[in-house]
Write a structure and sequence with these properties.
GO terms for molecular function: protein phosphatase regulator activity. With 766 residues, the chain is mainly alpha-helical. 64% of the residues lie in helices and 1% in strands. A two-stranded parallel sheet has the order 1-2.
Length: 766
């Protein structure tokens, strides 16, 4: 009841349910009354409420109701609990009064409590000195607080000395160079020297604050002192690893186990401070001074230590900059770690780490794109398989999402042969929906940056045949998810060319959930159309919706269809020519289309070079050109329409040199698209609006067609699709040709039995 009341009083204050005056009159005395409750938990709860109340109370109320009674509460004649409460209240009150009031009324109480006979009170007051120092300014801190801290750092109680040390470290920025070198540095040296002889809890605190300490005292160390602190840090990093007790785990005495836990905490804190220590020794000296320590932390036998160093790995990579190649092997080690917790910590910044690995360091590292790290791809694939075999599907999902950065760091062929098929397998066999969607989106990004037309067509064919026309309704649902990612990542013309008809064919699907999911997707599908080029596709779309309205038997699907028809009717059609209203979206789509065309031109150039020189143009040459060029469309003013030069615009008499110069001018697409992190693709969802439907869907709808008189705008009809987009291998027919004649037993269930799934959202097992 007391705990609930304390929380309720605090909620009334935070919600401003009553005025401050009414709150003071009605609630403040109740709070003060219960501060010395015999139960420590109850007392602490009321104290937390009071400390929050102090923030909003006026000065006069604080003086009369809290500060004045505090003089008697802080006396030695009061209980220890009362004096502990007084310490915390004094720390909070300091920021509410001017320096004169603090010096006259508060500081005498602070000094008295710092000299208290009980070590708990001295320790508690010592920890409040940081707040008091921030409230009284630099001068009073040096004259009043610093002497108290020096005296407390020599206290007989270890907890008091520890509190004094931590407060000194947190106040380093307030003191000038003379105070640091003449007063604080000797105290720190003495503390470090005595730490191994004292309680291990002091070592835990020291190891945690060592990075901040070295940073705060940087510049005043002599070379000898610098070396001693570095050696002290190295010793802490291996603390407890040299001891062999010779006992099995069940035979280890409890005190030894407790000691080992403290040693693990020390090494974990050392891993946490490793980036700060790189700054301390200078990144240029990393290999000589700290590499062996980094190696030990990455191979530490305890998971918490490796987990912490995995979290810091990105910071370490950034600090090393051109020396990042030195920690290639440690990256592989952490990727192959047996603990999924370590892997999960590492992959949070995996795209950034791999980008630094591929672009940082010497020119050979840049050109070869991680070719100096042959174990990277096996380590990445093994990490994914370990995550897939575990029950931690969120780690698996995150890893698949991060793999979307791979086109930026390894070659297209490596992705195709080592990762792309695995994405297919996950989409087809995994039972966790978020994992399947992550694999689907990553596969779409792999497809987006695949450089070989034959491979792209093979992937598209498998998507349509194995997912869109698959026997399992679950696979057909995943095909619609993939279509949504295709619309987001690719140009409108790409979706219309390969996926428009297979998608709308699912209006005939025998499973209600598939038809329902398609209805939700139809507005995005329609947004990919441009008039008049895609007029025939618009007719197909309207025909499918009309059939759904007339023939749909399922009431849930029919309700969604009716809502979708109204939404489609409100959409505005996008034109082939640029419209001012949708200029940025159209420009973004045209940039996507230009990049897709550029892929084909690059492939053609590679084939020509193979014929002429007998050797392929390597990925590193492509990357070098992309880094040396910029996309011209970015510098054009927005009022100038931009045409997309396709292969069809090149006459037979065009020389190879002109073709190559055009390629060089615009060859930055891949690096540019990923330069602001691959996650920026999420901003590229094309939502260009369209019109066309009346509520009854009785015809083509009222579509205003803009007459095209400017040759700079390419219409996208059947004849204007770039010849280079035409597949060398015949894609499967985009019409499933099955309609409702499909055997419901083979296509109406995830396996063989037809059933109507429950709809709307299918949540994966946690």
């Amino acid at each position: 009841m007391q705990l609930t009341a304390a929380v309720s009083f605090l909620t009334i204050l935070q919600d401003e349910s009553v005025s401050i005056h009414a709150y003071t009159h009605s609630f403040l005395q109740v709070i003060l009354l219960h501060l010395e409750h015999r139960d420590t938990g109850v007392s602490n709860a009321w104290l937390e409420t009071l400390l929050s109340v102090i923030e909003v109370l006026p000065k006069e109320t604080l003086r009369h109701e809290i500060l004045n009674p505090l003089v008697s509460k802080a006396q030695l004649s009061q209980t220890v609990q009362s004096r502990l409460v007084s310490c915390k209240i004094l720390g909070k009150l300091t920021n509410k009064f001017d320096a004169h009031t603090i010096k006259r009324e508060i500081l005498p109480l602070v000094k008295s409590l710092c000299q208290d006979v009980e070590y708990e009170v001295r320790s508690c007051m010592c920890r409040q000195l940081e707040n008091i120092a921030q409230g009284i300014g630099t001068e009073l801190t040096k004259s009043v607080v610093l002497p108290e801290l020096i005296e407390l750092s020599r206290d007989e109680g270890s907890s008091v000395r520890l509190a004094a040390f931590e407060t000194l470290v947190n106040l380093l920025d307030i003191f000038d160079t003379d105070d640091r070198s003449q007063t604080i540095l000797p105290l720190v040296k003495s503390f470090c020297e005595k730490s191994f002889k004292a309680d291990e809890s002091i070592l835990i605190s020291l190891s945690f604050h060592l990075g901040k300490l070295c940073h705060g005292l940087y510049g005043i160390f002599t070379p000898d002192q610098h070396l001693r602190f570095l050696e002290f840090y190295k010793k802490l990093c291996t603390l407890g690893l040299q001891q062999e007790n010779g006992h099995s785990e069940n035979q280890i005495p409890p005190q030894i186990l407790e000691q080992e836990k403290k040693y693990i905490s020390v090494r974990k804190n050392c891993a946490y401070n490793f980036p700060a220590m790189i700054v301390f020794v200078d990144p240029k000296n990393f290999h000589l001074e700290l590499y062996s320590t980094f190696f030990c932390l990455c191979h530490d036998p305890e998971v918490p230590v490796r987990y912490t160093i995995a979290i810091c790995f990105y910071e370490v990579s950034k600090l090393l900059n051109s020396g990042v190649y030195l920690i290639h092997k440690e990256l592989i080690t952490l990727l192959q770690d047996e603990s999924l917790e370590v892997l999960d910590a590492l992959i949070d910044h995996l795209p950034e780490i791999l980008e630094l690995m591929s672009t940082g360091g010497e020119s050979s590292v840049q050109e070869n794109k991680l070719s100096s790290l042959p174990d990277l791809i096996p380590a990445l694939t093994a990490a994914e398989q370990r995550a897939a075999a575990s029950l931690k599907w969120r780690t698996h999902e995150k890893l698949l999402q991060k793999y979307a950065c791979l086109p930026h760091v390894i070659s297209s062929d490596q992705i195709y042969y080592r990762f792309l098929q695995r994405m297919f397998t996950i989409m087809m066999t995994n039972n966790v929906l978020p994992v399947q969607k992550a694999a689907s989106r990553t596969l779409c990004i792999f497809l987006r940056y695949n450089r070989k037309q034959e491979q792209r067509h093979e992937v598209i064919q498998k998507l349509i045949e194995q997912l869109g026309q698959g026997k399992s309704y679950w696979n057909r649902l995943r095909f619609l998810d993939t279509c949504e990612f295709i619309i987001e990542i690719f140009s409108k013309s790409f979706f219309c060319k390969y996926f428009f008809l297979p998608a709308i064919e699912l209006t005939h699907d025998p499973v209600a959930n598939v038809r329902m999911k398609l209805c939700y997707l139809l507005p995005k599908v329609k947004s990919t159309l441009k008039i008049p080029a895609d007029k025939h596709l618009l007719q197909q779309l309207e025909m499918c919706v009309r059939k759904l309205l007339c023939q749909e038997k399922d009431k849930d699907v029919l309700a969604i269809v009716k809502r979708t028809v109204l939404e489609l009717d409100r959409m505005e059609m996008s034109m082939d020519a640029f419209q001012k209203k949708f200029y940025e979206k159209d420009l973004l789509d045209q940039e996507k289309e230009r990049e897709e065309l550029l892929l084909l031109e690059m492939e053609q150039l590679e084939k020509e070079k193979q014929q002429n020189d007998g050797r392929p143009m390597s990925d590193k040459m492509y990357e070098k050109k992309r880094r040396d060029t910029k996309t011209p469309t970015q510098s054009l003013p927005k009022n100038i329409p931009i045409s997309v030069p396709g292969p069809s615009s090149v006459t037979p008499s065009t020389s190879k040199e002109i073709k190559k110069s055009k390629l060089i001018r615009s060859q930055s697409f891949n690096n540019q698209a990923f330069h602001a992190k691959y996650g920026n693709l999420e901003k590229c969802a094309s939502k260009s609006s369209t019109t066309g439907y009346t509520a009854s869907v009785s015809g083509l709808g009222k579509t205003s067609v803009l007459s095209l008189t400017d040759d700079s705008f390419r219409t996208r009809n059947a004849s204007s699709v770039p010849p280079s987009f035409s597949p060398n291998t015949t894609l499967p027919s985009t019409s499933r040709g099955t309609g409702n004649s499909l055997d419901p037993k083979s296509s109406g269930s995830k396996d063989t039995q037809p059933r109507k799934a429950t709809l709307k959202s299918r949540k994966s097992n946690p």
